């Protein structure tokens, strides 16, 4: 088990330095910014207990709007189901059988590509792993900008993304990276910016309920995801079944 006592002390000292407004403006080092973000998201004690995410989403892209369900845990399991007109249109996930995808018009799931697996696992890290815990999982954080504060996150697999923090609130409000938007459908990579807003506290964890994605090359908005319902730390044994298991659309409300 990793000894976190020295990390806790360092984060506490950094958090004290980052307290208050305009005191928040003093958060200029990497440790201070991570501490500010940790406090903004619910605090180290709460985030350390974070294990699962269970959400119902409204997904909008040019030409369609759909309802989606997202269930993930920090052990590396995740399942996404997308429904249109009350019928399952697409599913994908990572579980004990590996990574898979399942179009709604196919009789069953099929193995998916490595890029799809990486995208799903990166999503788990973004949603469930606090910034301060990322290095312990083999990822790297580097402060590369001061105004606005920008942290580069380099995943253990080499994928790079830039996280822009609000200097006052400490929340990550923008993310930029080069990637395929739907890697198992179209492998074309684009420079994409995700803009996060509508931050809400749920079960002691603060997170954005709105995410708008833009193609920085064209300036076009290419997608928006809004959270309809969200719960943390539920038992997801029934929500992340094996790939072959079909699921029903979420109930209204």
Count of structural domains? 2
> What is the third-level CATH name, the topology of the largest domain?
outer membrane lipoprotein receptor (LolB), chain A
Quickly give the CATH architecture of the largest domain. Clam
> What separation lies between the terminal Cα atoms?
41 Å
Instruction: Using the alpha-carbon principal axes, give the shape.
Output: globular
Structural class: alpha+beta
Helix tally equals 4
Largest sheet: 13 strands, antiparallel
Numbering strands along the chain, what is their spatial order in the largest sheet? 6-5-4-3-2-1-13-12-11-10-9-8-7
What's the CATH first level of the largest domain?
Mainly Beta
Give the tally of β-strands: 13
Question: Helical percent range?
Answer: 10-25%
- Rg over CA atoms, rounded to whole Å, is 18 Å
Reading the helices and strands in chain order gives HHHEEEEEEHEEEEEEE
Instruction: Give the name of the CATH superfamily of the largest domain.
Output: Lipoprotein localisation LolA/LolB/LppX
- Stretches with pLDDT under 50, minimum 5 residues: 1-6, 11-24
Fraction in beta strands: over 45%
Instruction: State mean pLDDT (0 to 100 scale).
Output: 88
């Amino acid at each position: 088990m990793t000894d976190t006592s020295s990390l806790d002390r360092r984060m506490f000292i950094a958090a004290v330095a980052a307290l208050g407004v305009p005191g928040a403006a003093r958060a200029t080092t990497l440790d201070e910014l991570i501490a500010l973000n940790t406090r903004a998201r619910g605090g180290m004690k709460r985030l350390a207990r974070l294990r699962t995410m269970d959400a119902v989403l409204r997904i909008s892209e040019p030409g369609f709007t759909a309802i989606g369900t997202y269930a993930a845990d920090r052990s590396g399991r995740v399942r996404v189901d997308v429904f249109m007109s009350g019928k399952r249109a697409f599913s994908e996930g990572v579980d004990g059988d590996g990574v898979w995808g399942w179009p709604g018009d196919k009789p069953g799931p099929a193995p998916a590509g490595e890029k799809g697996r990486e995208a799903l696992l990166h999503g788990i890290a973004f949603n469930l792993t606090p910034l301060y815990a990322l290095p312990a999982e083999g990822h790297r954080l580097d402060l590369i900008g001061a105004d606005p504060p920008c942290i580069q996150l380099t995943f253990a697999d080499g994928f790079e993304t830039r996280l822009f923090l609000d200097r006052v609130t400490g929340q990550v409000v923008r993310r930029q990276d080069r990637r395929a938007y739907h890697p198992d459908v179209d492998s074309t990579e684009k420079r994409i910016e995700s803009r996060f807003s509508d931050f809400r506290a749920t079960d002691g964890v603060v997170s954005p309920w709105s995410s708008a994605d833009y193609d920085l090359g064209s300036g076009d908005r290419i997608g928006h995801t809004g959270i309809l319902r969200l719960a943390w730390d539920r038992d997801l044994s029934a929500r992340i079944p094996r790939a072959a298991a079909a699921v029903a659309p979420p109930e209204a409300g």
